[in-house]
Write a structure and sequence with these properties.
alpha/beta, seven-stranded mixed sheet, 9 helices, 12 strands
């Protein structure tokens, strides 16, 4: 077991900070004196967080890791994510909308049970559902997208789909899935209520879960199942987001990784930033790596407090502003 992180560093994913969201002048000065840049956080969070820790991202099996994180048990079969999406026809293309946050688990269960009854036996595959997440297992591995639907939300799906001869099985299965979902009562109900129907599934992250391999990781505080699955695969310590930075510090002896759930509450953002600044001033944490949901990244070190000539940073006053 080797050390792979700086025990005096905390890596925290926070709500969006640009566009003037931070009203507190002291917090703006504190962040403005850090090494603040505009980057792309990206989806899923696993890859950028592992880069911060100096670790390689898994090459495959992301859906299996997510299921591992949801259940606490390592899946042994080949598995891919099969998440609900709506493909909106446009003039000369399609636009993908992820429905993972816009579907009731019982609705999705009805759709998954229907797909299992219609396609499961004929294609030597199995469909399963856990919450708003879907999964598919097959005897033979399929080519799948590398990223979840949330990464392609609002975009053309073809840029993310597998291509070439290896993708033939993927295209054939998706065609059958879309025919089976067409005019299903759940979709009729959703459309009658003005909601987008589930007219396809997004197959992504196919592969097998890796064998457990112990690695010294910082404690994780996150509700993200994929992150939790990776931490379990490395026998790391993971827990749900506890609501405050203070609670993270109570549990961890030194550094940690924390992911704050998505929110558009500027008061919560300022409260959490205040906790982090207080912890750094008190010497609990020497370095903070703060990823904001709008792509801002702040590398905040205690020594940065001496940069008294930095009075403002335009990145905090403008930006894409996606929460």
């Amino acid at each position: 077991m080797t050390s792979s992180y700086d025990i005096s560093t905390a890596v925290v994913v926070l709500p969006a900070a640009g566009g003037g969201r931070i009203a507190d002048r002291g917090l703006r000065l504190w962040l403005g004196r850090s090494d603040l840049v505009q980057e792309r956080l990206g989806e899923p969070l696993l890859a950028p967080l592992l880069r911060e820790l100096g670790l390689p991202a898994p090459e495959s099996g992301l859906a299996a890791l997510r299921l591992w994180g949801q259940t606490g048990d390592r899946p042994t079969a080949w598995i891919a994510g099969a998440d609900p999406i709506y493909l909106e026809p446009r003039l000369d293309t399609l636009c993908l909308y992820s429905l993972e946050d816009a579907i009731e688990p019982l609705e999705f269960r009805r759709l998954i049970d229907h797909l299992q009854a219609m396609l499961g036996g004929n294609n030597a595959c199995g469909f399963a559902q856990l919450g708003a997440c879907g999964y598919i297992t097959t005897e033979d591995a399929l080519a799948t997208a590398a990223v979840p639907a949330s990464a392609a939300d609002g975009q053309r799906p073809d840029a993310f789909l597998p291509a070439g001869d290896a993708a033939a099985g993927h295209r054939r299965l998706i065609s059958e899935v879309e025919m089976a979902l067409h005019e299903h009562p759940v979709n009729a109900e959703r459309e009658a209520e003005g909601r987008r129907p589930v007219n396809s599934l997004w197959l992504w992250g196919g592969g097998k879960a890796p064998a457990p391999n112990a690695l010294r990781l910082p404690p994780l505080f996150a509700d993200d199942a994929l992150l939790q699955g990776y931490w379990q695969s490395r026998t790391g310590v993971g827990a749900a987001w506890p609501g405050t930075i203070a609670r993270c510090l109570d549990v961890s002896l030194a550094g940690f990784v924390a992911v704050v759930p998505r929110t558009n509450d500027p008061a919560l953002l300022e409260f959490l930033l205040g906790e982090l600044r207080t912890a750094q001033i008190a010497g609990r944490l020497d370095r903070l790596v703060l990823w904001f949901r709008d792509g801002l990244r702040a590398d905040v070190r205690r020594a940065h407090s001496r940069r008294v000539w930095r009075l403002r940073n335009t990145l905090l006053e403008s930006g894409p502003g996606r929460p």
